[in-house]
Design a protein that fits this description.
heterodimer, A: alpha+beta, Sufe protein. Chain: A, B: alpha/beta, Aspartate Aminotransferase, domain 1, Aspartate Aminotransferase, domain 2, four-stranded antiparallel sheet, 15 helices, about 45% helix, globular, binds FE2/S2 (inorganic) cluster
Chain lengths: ~140, ~425
Amino acid sequence: MSDTKEYTLYNDKVMDHFMNPRNMGDIQDADGVGEVGAAACGDIMKISLKIQDGKIQDARFKTFGCGSAIASSSMATELIKGRTIEDALKFSNQEVVDALGGLPPVKIHCSVLAEEALKAALEDYVKKHPEAVEHAETAATK
Amino acid sequence: MASRTVFLDHLSATPVDPRVFDAMKPYFTEVFGNPSSLHRYGLQVRDALSKAREQFAFLINAESPEEILFTSGGTEANNLAIKGIAYANQRKGNHIIIAETEHPSILESIAFLEKQGFTHSKVRVDKLGILNPDDVRNAITDKTILIAVHHVNHDIGSIQPIAEIGKIANEKGIAFFSDATASAGWVPIDVRAMGVNALSFAPHRFYGPKGVGVLYRNRKARLVSIIHGGVQENGRRAGTENVPAIVGGGLAAELARKEMPQRIEHVQKLQKRLMDGLSTKVPYLKINGPPCGPHRSPSNVSLATEFIEGEGQLLLLDHHGVCVASGGSCVSKSLKVSHVLSAIGLDHALAQGSIIMTLGKDNTESDMDYVVETMAKIVEKLRTMSPMWDEFQQGKIDSTIAPRGIGKSFTEHAAAVSGHREERSTTR
Ligand code: FES
């Protein structure tokens, strides 16, 4: 091709998070792990969390999914680090979409998958540590 | 930008052959007449269309150029064939037989007709994507008015036993149409030997321009028009012809026929090199469809790579300059896996990891080696990111391609974690 523009399926931000994903991997002694699948496309996402003093110290992901799912999980783990459990339970996929500078309409569910994997990991933590998060627990099971 | 590009999506488009492009040029500027006009400009262009008809007839060994009809593309040709033949025969019956792995332009035309009282039977294909002509025979009822079976499958390259089906159709006096959009120019076509009454194709798959399609139909395929408002194409398809594209397409057809032996030999060699290379260098990778040989289009390579998904492969390949299609380019926006891959019984997770490569005459052996190398690299990268690959390593899930007999199947696993999602989403 003679023109020099770089044509890509997603915007630069999404491509960057897809090509150079942040926080990819597992946490060995994770405090909470969530793995969820998207019924629409069959993609699967797993998020592990390290939680200390009610705060998310570290978040890692592994994703079997499209470019936008990989970018969403990369971004979600970036956004969530440092938040309290209560804050994290309010996390919404829209934050991921905004931080990524938008996703194509058919790819919004990929960011929903990230939200759900994160919440599943938090639920897992809450289940194991009911004492640590008494009011967070009520929020989680609502 | 990638240092090298390898275009492996020739089923979606091919570069126009420079000889074809040269032949087209005068028809934009000097020879610009409308073939329906009665003056010298019109008559001159009419001549050019006649020549193109001959060239298209030559490619598929049609008896007469009169049997060649121009449309805007393969999709319109398929719509015209299905709807046109169905309407023309509706007094005789309302039943249509197709293969389950037809192109969406056929499937959706059929769905449209169903709303108007037509019915259809879908004939199953085997694991290689090939149907059994006996199943076509068994599906025939006294209401059957049309049999439509594609020549070569778009996704997996399977070649259907068209001549045998043609025999059955002719014996029963039922019109027989074949969608040859994935084969024309790459697999020899002889409409007389194949016993088809109608056949569609488009030259942009063999180095002609986009914007023109061809519908061959002989006397046995009665056809009513679906586009009205003019007498073009003997009243079968109204609308001013795309003259430059038809002229270019005609030459592309002539060249395709003349150069076919070399083109086939070339891509077949590349196909084998690519398939062998991928199968040996990339673990847990499977070739979809028939092996190289008489039952597979020489230009198609369809593969499924386990534990990773197709779009990521496509994006990373593109980043390395390798352009491919993912599990059926027409459906990639709908998130569904290709109906063809489901029809051959491919596991859902494997179908998700499928990509399609279609070879062309300008690809080289070293391109194939580069693609194999690149594919090995990107598959490894995507697997390190995939929870499925981990779980496979840990023995929690099993491989479908090379089962070890430990762990549950991917599908069971996926259902379990998606079930979790469904519970949650009801609370959303
Ligand atoms: S397409 Fe389903 S997660 Fe991206």
